[in-house]
Structure formats: C-alpha cells, structure tokens
Amino acid sequence: MEKHMVVCPYCGSGCKFNLLVEDDMVVGAEPLNGLTNQGELCLKGYCGYDFINDTKILTPRLYHPMIREHKGDPLKRVSWDTALNFVVDKLNAVKEKYGPDAIMTTGSSRGTGNESNLAMQRFARACLGTNNIDNCART
Amino acid sequence: MNRFIAIEPSRCVACGTCRAACSAGHKEAGLQDEPRLALFESRDVVASLTCHHCEGAPCFKVCPVNAIRHDLDGCVRVDEKKCIGCKLCAVSCPFGAIHMSGTPVAGVAGIQYNTPTFSASLSPILQYEVGVYPCAVKCDLCAYDGCHPHCVDACITNALHLVEEDGDSGTPREIEDKRAKALQSSVVMFDNCNDEKEGGERS
Amino acid sequence: MSCGVPGMEDAGCIFLFGYNPNTSHPIVARRIVRAKEKGAKIIVADPRFIETSRIADLYLPLKNGSNIAFLNAFANVIVKDGLMDEEFVKEHVTGFDEWWKTIEKYTPENTKEITGIDPGLLREAAHMYATAEPSSIIGWGMGVCQHLQNVEAVHTCAAIACITHQIGKPNSGVAPVRGQNNVQGACDMGALPNFFPGYQSVTDEKIKEKFAQAWHIPVDKLSDHVGYKVSDIGHLIDDGKLHAFVNMGEDPLQTEPDTDHLTEQLAKLDIFICLDIFMTQSCAVADVVLPATSWGEHEGVFTACDRTFQYFSAAVPPKGECKHDWQIISEISTRMGYPMHYENTKQIWDEECRAVWPAAYGATYEKMAGVGYAQWPIPTLEHKGSPDLFLGGKFSTPDQKAKLIAHDFEYPSEMPDKEYPLILCTVREVGHYSCRSMTGNCKELSRLAEEPGYAHINPKDAAARGINKEDLIWAYSRRGKIITRAFIDDRVNEGAVYMTYQWWIGKCNTLTLHHVDTRSHTPEDKFCAIQIERIDDQVWAEQHAQELYMKMKMRLSKVASAQNEPMED
Asked: pTM here?
C-alpha cells in the first residue's frame, strides 16, 4: 500500500492526511499530525476520497474533451487539439467583436490548487487583457 | 460487567464523524453499512447514542433464531447471516438502539430506483421497501475483527470512550491521557486491521 | 483571519457571529470546545440555536437580517460603558469621531425592536467580549457575508475589535473562517477582479509595471480597470456585455442564486467553456467540456483559512485524457498567441507567486514538505511565518492605522409577507461540500445524507401547516418551487426555515433571490421570503423525489456518455 500526503479539499481548516493507494485506487485516509488537525479528521476527510475512483454514485467523471459545435447540438467527443482550437477560435472571435471585457473567467477555490489560479489570472490579464477573473468566494 | 460506548455531551460537536466511521468500518467487514450510532439532538443536549449492551439484554432473550449473542466479554452482537428480520429485538429494546437495514435493490431486476412504500414519518420499525430484505443492526463494539471501536477512535473531540471494567474510567483528562498513549499503538481508522496481524507497519 | 486556527484555543473569549463551525468546520469547532475547557468565555449571536450555543456562556437570539443594528448597538455599549481602550484608539485608530456620529444613534434599547435582543443581555455580551483576557476573537461566516449589508457588518466587526484592542496582539482579532478549502488561496492568487496575486491593486501603475515586466508584455496590454464579478454574470449576459465564459471548477447552476433564471442566461452566451472533473449541471449545458485532473491526481498548494500555505501531493495518476487545469490554460493561452509554459507546479509557484508577492517570498516548497507549512506574511527564507496579523497595532493601511467605518441599518431586500411568510436562510451540510459533485460521489457520505435534504423548521411553524417530522414538503418562493423534507427542530427560530444548499433536487437556490450588495456583489442567500406546504400523499411524494433524482442522474450520465463514443475526427 502506498501513502501520499494531501491537504483536505473540503474546508478552510487545512487538515493534513495520507491517502492510502492500492493499484492506483484510493482506498483509505489516515490522519497526519498537521498544524490545524493534530491527527484528527472529520467525516469528510475520512470518507471523502472515493469520488476520485469515479464511483458514478451521483455523476460520472470526465475523461475526454467534448464540444457542442453549434448551439442545440449534443456534446460530442473530440481530440484535445480540436477542442482547444475550437476554444481559441471562439474566444478570439468574441474578443475581436466585443473586446476582451466580453470574456469572463473564473479561478477555483476548490480542489485545483493555487497554481491553477495563478495560471488562470495570468491568462485573463496578460493573454486576454481583462481583469474579468473571480472565484466562488461569494457563494 | 458490561462494556459500552459512553459519550460526554459537552464535548460532542454533532459532526457525525462517529457515524461515518461506524458505517465505513462495518462495510469494510462485509456487514450492513447502516451506522450503529444515532445522533440525538435536542435544544440542550447532543449525543451519539448507541446500544448499552445491557446485562440482561432483552433483545438476546427474544430473538427466535438465536441470531443475537451475549458474549462473555459483555458485548451483545447480531449475527447478520442468521437474522430473519422479524424485528422482535427492535421492539423489545428499551433504548431504541436496534433498527432494521437492508441492501437496496435499485439497479437490479428492472427496478430503476428505490421504491419507498411508506411515509418517512412512519416508525422505522414499520417501514419496508419492496425487495429489500431487512436485517437487525446494532452496535457490536466493532468486535467482529478485534478492532477498537471505530467511532471512539474517530471522534475529533474525544467525546466518545469505551467503558470497560478495567479500562477507560476516570476523569475526561485521565481518559484522554490514556487514550493518547493507547493511540500510539492502536489502529487508525481505515488502516486495515489485518496489517497488524501480518506485522504491517502503521503510522 | 487575523489569528491562527490553533491559537483560537488560547483566546479568553470567542464571539461567534453568524457562524456555525460545527457544520462548516468541525475541526475548528474542536478548537472551540478545547478553548472552553481551557476557560474561554463563549458568546454566540445567531438566530438559530446553533450547536456551539449549547456550550456558550451567553446566547443572543438575534432576528434574521438585523446584523448591523445589533453590531452598532454592541459598539455603542462599548463606548458608552467605558470599555474602549482609549490609548490604543488614540495611537492606532483613525476616523473615530465620524464613526461615532453613526454609532451614537444605535442603543440596545432603540434597536430592540429590530434585533429582538434584550438590552441587558447585549450589555453583558459587550462587557464579556471587551474585557476578556488575554484576548477576544470575533468569528464570523456566511451569516455575515451573505446578507445585503455584508461589507458593512465586516467593517463594524473590525471596528469593535479595534476600539477594544482585541486585535493586534496574539490570538485575537477577526476570524472570518473561509468556507471552501482554498477560497483564501484563490483570493491570495489574484483570482479576483481587482487584485493581482497578493492583493496588489490592478489599478496601481507601479504594480502594473511590475506585472507587465514579469509577464513580458507592454504595460498598456493590461486592463486599466477592475473586472466583473462572477455573481454578476447573469445580468451582464442580459445586458449584452458578456459573450464568453471560461469556468474552471465551479458549478454556478448549483451554487448561485435563482438557478432557473441563470440557466436561461447562460444559454445566450456565444461560448461557455467548463474545465471540470465531473459532469456537473453546468457542464451539461456548456459548449466545451474540458476534463481536468482531480484533487488526488495533481499536486499543488492550498491556503487554509488562517493564511497557511500547505503542499499536497498527487496520489494517483490522471485518468483518461485528463490534464491539469494549469496545463489546459497554458495551452489555450499559447494557441492564442501568448505563450505560457510550465514544467510543474513548483515552477508556477516560484515564478507567479513568490517572485511577485513579497509577503509570500519565504514560502518555499521545501518549507512545506511533509507536514510543514508556511503562514503568510512570510517575507524571507528565514522567516517562520505569521500566525497573527497586525501585531503591535500595525495595520496594513498606508498610515498603519485602522480606519473606522460605520453604516446605518437597512432592512433586507425581500421581507416576508402574507403570501410568503417565512424567511429562508441557506446553510451547510456537515457531510457534504459545495455543489456536492465530489462528496455526492463518495459512498459513506452519500450513505449518511441523501436527497432531497432537509428544511429545518420551528415546531410551531410545522404544526400550523400540519407538517410531521420527516414529511416531504413543497417549498416555494417567487422564483421557483422544490420538494424537500421537514426536520422539525426546536433550535430554529419561529418564522425561519434553514436549508442546506448541497441538494440538487431539494435545491434551495431555486428559491433564493438574486440580489447582490453594491460593494462585494455577494448574493443575499441568507434572506428571502418563502412558503412551505405539506404534501398530502406522502408515498407519492417519496417516489416522486426518487424519480426526479434518478431522472437528473440519468440526464447527466447521458450527456457524459458522449465521451465514450468513438471520435469522428
């Protein structure tokens, strides 16, 4: 069994624990003596890991890029190349027609981590040229 | 003397971690995953309540198929394989610590989703669901695999403790000190109990 | 937070105002229990008799939506009863006279009608808070922030801490405990329309120069004005101002208010892009769905509510074709003609955070190894980090002094009336998180709490409507109607209903009002008018709820199944 140290993704307390991994499946959680949690975990920390394994209890994980070519079409699977080019064409078109402030972006205050937020705000500001970036701090 | 899980309500924060630990531990052992503790909340008191493991346990006496055992170590346990779901134990329990649980059949035999046939305000003893075979569920002090009770280990404020004849007694502070010592060698929740038997390492 | 979470247990008094730690942060609730055992006084002011009220020395049952009237009267008592630390105010605080002109008008007696608080009790609480040794902490949560007068209440809480000198020393001050795990981090990292990373203003020319240089662009490429807030997207789409939305890891159709209306608005976008790990309700209507790695599949740094940076590692490899969010963004940017390339998260952390934010310079990955951490401000490599802010009364203003700001009380936007006589207040589920896409997919957590969730109702309100415990009920407002389950709860105040916002069928955000305050544009999720009604045929209702839930899951699963089809191109 492998152990990988993580910080709980469920509230601002910042509890530290190990994820227990067998054959690339997360099978358990074990508290660590972190600054705030001191070897304790609440129920979300103890039992909140198995979504990673795609249990499909509520809704499935996403594995492949999908696009809706025209409004009203169903989503269809495409390659990363196609999906990213589609995004770029659409964003460029909006930027050209309405200016950079017609594009809104969000960071995420959830599992993605600080680095993705840093990348997103740089993208919004330096690439798009807008300060339209926000996160769900308000909800 | 009997053994049971006691709670200090002043420490309970009603987070339900004990219930989650109970459910996870029993599920891991292949038993019903229904939590064996109920979170009782009134305006002034909050407490996780569970079986008292009574010395003259009425549930043990009424079971028509001897699915309930009263072990010498003071623990009253249900053998889920033997239980016929007659609910006599649940009716006879003076504390309401036994209730029925079964595995839902949604997803099999053409049944798409759970089909409750009762109002949820109905007494749990009278509730039934089409196709679900009920089984009596109660606290077994996690005796099924020799573990320390999972709820006690998981409690974040040390509000729960296992009362034993020669075990945890004394002031909360003394118990906490004992627990802290015991924790160093005891089982961390979810850390498979078999590890210890196989000499596995734990942190 | 101006103090650390561990330090809370060493405070002399903890005053919880609109914050229920037991469901939001059990690990913080644990500290409060420990503080109490160490002798701290606990004060709770909340319309609901929340869990901590049980161990509180004083419980103040204020009416929903009366925060500012209450806090103003609280401040008034402090000044009038001579509880103010005059020396501290003289040395470290500005704007007192102007502030007092407003506060003077609010006495415990003349606000009693609005707050419902007995003046004697309010005085007792103010004395307990102001005189506690060695320090007092005011902890608040969304009970302050999701009201119309949210920024106003924050200003006043801070003012109360300043005039009593219950800030600027260890284990004291203000503790707005952040809800989501990394909401502090997202704000720290500049995912805000008005700040670059490290709360550096986007309109400050010097700061703009610095970032233009770091990002290798001419300074005029940077926007010269503050951007839009995410809670405004609906209105902005209606006004024709917004045409594209790049949404990373959020599910606005679950978490934003008045979701039925928002669904119509999002459909009008030219392009709606979602980066997510799950097929959420928002992804299901998006034009582009990009699969990202989940927590557990990537590494990085989170910031805890008390400004603690902590590193987390990847436990399992990415699934399918999932890429890290930062990789996806970099690739889009590069294809749009602005090359962004990173080898790993450490490079991003060092280049985009530590290099441009002086207060985080000392927070290296090395310091955060194992159970290590770095609490900002941490300006140098040798620095140990700062559990407490504003020590010695040095505030983060240009003159290092705290500026007092006072506000007059206003009533909430939608008051109860004959048709909708109850107040709906949205709260949190202890075993679920945010839009529930993560915890709803966990076996144990969904075992313990499932759809349609509960509406907590006072026994009198329930009896008046013939509602029994566990009954399914209709809840409706001017915005919509949903099915939910009754929890008859004598901790709930009469006339109010509390629903957790995690449920997709019993979705309280179908009912909430999309009315945001003028300063922070936070929705008024804690106050809108609703009505509830018993459903006569309970068995039908039970089956109906199951059917609705299954249909929703089938719909999302069907949309997601497109990813299993073979590719055309």
From this structure: 0.90
